[in-house]
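re the bet — no i am not wrong, look at it urself. input seq straight from the record:
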Amino acid sequence: MEPLLALLAVTAAVWALGRNRVPFATALRAGVAAMFLLTGAAHFIGLREELISMVPPALPAPELLVTATGVLELGGAVALFVPRLAAWAAGGLALLLIAMFPANVYAAQAGIVDDWWSQLWPRTVLQLVFLAAVTTVFVDRWRARSGVTTSARRRSLQA
């Protein structure tokens, strides 16, 4: 639940502080970065043992996998603010969400975590929200990278 709150609160705060002059996709990028800073840090502080227990038994070296995914989440969050890397970071974070989803399924089925948000259906919906946010950031940054603005895109569609 905390990652969702971080995503929503930081997105809303950045957008509000920008007095609606900050594009929503930029505010969302800040929210996604905050979310991944929070979840990435959890791989090392606080939830590490729980995350290790969520790694399906078929995968080798659960400690290493949790460390690697934590580093990728933290690195991806920082890279979202590097213009040349932002699109790639968002795309990589989207792939990471997809790759890590089986751990959520395993944890729900094995009863490893006991709160309501960790049950399969709520967790699936939550993952889809996170994936939608990261994908929105990816599309926005990819368009910016390729020089396609919303107004230029509208004009080309009208022509």
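see?? The two ends are 45 Å apart (CA to CA). told u. also The helical segments are 2-17, 24-42, 48-54, 62-79, 86-110, 120-145, 150-158. so pay up
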